[in-house]
Every structure is written in C-alpha cells, then in structure tokens.
Design a protein that fits this description.
Strand order of the largest sheet: 1-2-3
Strand content: 5-15%
Structural class: alpha/beta
Shape: globular
Largest sheet: 3 strands, parallel
CATH topology: Rossmann fold
Number of domains: 1
Order of helices and strands: HHEHEEH
Radius of gyration: 13 Å
Number of helices: 4
CATH architecture: 3-Layer(aba) Sandwich
CATH class: Alpha Beta
Helix content: 25-40%
Length: 90
C-alpha cells in the first residue's frame, strides 16, 4: 500500500530542514496546504514535539493521550479514531 498517496502533503525534516517542535516545520506544512495556522488542527502523541510545537506555531493542538497522563489543561483524545468526532464539534 502506498500510504503517501492518501495525503495531500507530506512534510518532514527532509522537506523543511527543521524538526518538531520547531514551529517552522508546522508553518511549512500549513503553507504547503494553502491554509492559515488558526484553521489547522494538529494531532500528535508527544506533548513537547507535537502539542507544544503546534501551539507555538499558532495551530490548534490535539494530543493523543492513550495512558491518560496528560495535564488537564491540554485538549486530548485517547484514540486517533476520536479525532473525527472532535473535529466535527469544533
């Protein structure tokens, strides 16, 4: 299966020259998509690299908190499947 064909944009350190949590990699991704950071929800499972990186770039961040260990002030889900329900309620 060619997973890359399922996505409009693929961004990584090799395409941007920056790695998470550097906000420039998040901004590179939204720029490639032609959208604004405030229009974007980034879903990830690392508070530092994903959640904080996305927030610092002005994106809405949603943490996958499988072990229920994240602080209460972080918006989170337990399973990736919950992201669609979350998005439809935003």
């Amino acid at each position: 299966m060619k997973l890359r064909a399922s996505f409009n944009v693929a961004v990584g350190v090799d395409t941007c020259g920056k790695a998470k949590p550097d906000k420039r990699i998040f901004l590179h991704a939204v720029n490639k998509l032609g959208i604004q950071p405030k229009e974007t929800i980034f879903v990830g499972d690392s508070i530092e690299r994903d959640h904080n990186g996305a927030k610092n770039a002005g994106l809405k961040a949603l943490l996958i908190d499988r072990d229920r260990k994240a602080p209460a002030d972080i918006e989170k889900i337990q399973r990736l499947e919950e992201a669609l329900a979350y998005i439809s309620n935003v």
